[in-house]
Amino acid sequence: MKTMKKIYSLMLLLVAGGCTQDFEEINTNPNSPVSVQPSLLLRQVIYDYGEQMSYEGFTAGNLLGQYTTALDFNLFDRHNLKSPQLGGNPWPIFYKNLRDNEIILNLSQESPSFKVYEGPARILKAYMSAALTDLFGDVPYFEAFKGDKGTVTPVYDSQESIYMDDNGILDNLTKGISAIQAYDGVISLEGDILFEGDLEGWVRFANSLRIKYLMRISNKMDVATELQTLFNDANYIQDNSQNAVFDFTGGAPNNFRLARLRIGDFNNFVMSETMDEILTDFEDPRISKLFRPISNSDTGEEYNGLLNGIDASSTPVNLSDYSLVGTIFRENTGVLDANFMTSMETHFLLAEAAQKGFITADVNQLYETGVAEACAYWQVELPSGYLTGPGALENGDPLENILSQKWIANMINGYEGWIEYRRTGYPQLKTISASLNNDLIPVRMPYPAEEEALNNSNYTKAAENTDGNSINVNVWWDEE
Fold first, then answer.
1. How far apart, in whole angstroms, are the C-alpha atoms of residue 243 and residue 51?
2. Could you report the per-residue pLDDT of 21-43, keeping only the tens digit for each?
3. Which of 321, 350, 357, 399 is the most exposed, having the fewest neighbouring CB atoms within 10 Å of its CB?
4. Handedness of CA 382, 388, 393, 395 (dihedral sign)
5. What's the pTM value of the predicted model, to 2 decimals?
6. Which DSSP symbol is given to 299?
7. Residues 266, 267, 273, 278: is their CA dihedral positive or negative?
8. Residue 367: how many CA atoms within 13 Å on its side-chain side?
9. How many Å apart are CA 114 and CA 424, to the nearest integer?
């Protein structure tokens, strides 16, 4: 027995010695680089965020914004937002891409060779952070992405501080532009699938975002002076050739994800009654691009929408009586973009600012440019009498027309339509058919269940501040 113990002890020593000798050399994977190249990470962040949020915006955001409705698997459409189904859980998309973007930002500040990435990384951080906090309200921000420093349960920061403080949304846009303008190196920006390395494109993108976020907080503070300066400088996205977008392809793997859904899942989404009424009132030609005629049509030109939030168990629906979404979202996605920021959205924001008296500008010209850019974006010819007839600014409430046109144009970004409805009240969304939220339209997304499990103490405080993680508690810029 003693002999066996000696042999076993010797084996342990031999194994231990074998494991520790040349440890670093043996345990280094030659196919895995020690440090990541920011060009590869930038491409990954832009594509992953754009691809995933385009799908999220369509499957879940379009339900909240009442662009489409779901025939089945529709607890989310009935406003049980804690039950994501085909979509409805964007939280991990935000944090994964914000984490990777933070690596780019850190590399840009640590190495002169990567300095060119600082501006775009700050601008992307502002963009993704704004979308995150506008959906959820208070979220982990300033302490997030510090796991390597021991912070694995970050506190929730107030939305106001995320917008307004140093290294917050507005500050990062300012610092991002400054970093680009101060850059005098010869190394080009690689991995940029939005602007192909054109730094001036990033500056225009940042200025359009600044217009957007100033309008978003305009109920909380005076934004007029800065908006007027941005308008006068005119260094924002002016036409579709300058849009912050990247193209999907016509086939896998880089086509729009809706094209890869099973036919049954695709057929789950039809035009909403809200969208049907707004497009019909405008006599809008985009209806034939965004949706398909009903199968039961004798003429092949009839469209029909369904009120959001039916109880599928008690309301039988004949699919052929309602309009499915257009071929651009499934069979022909090569004409579709992942849309970060556009000329059409910028012009509608400026038109709203002019209509509200925040800036001195020609409201009608900004509005008509927005409509023209939106039709061109969706590759639909603008009818000659549209802007003097049903689509005229003064045909009804000018502000409602501006915001309704922006809502239509943003169908690929359904969460944006819902966010802007919460901010402005337009377009007028409907009380849904079989609400699971007491007939209230939600005004924020709920924190996901994994936060309660993984970041409990901080989650608990955030939940207390939102009446138990309620979807009916307004975010900061939406408070009266």
1. 16
2. 443 343 444 444 447 899 999 99
3. 357
4. negative
5. 0.92
6. S
7. positive
8. 24
9. 41
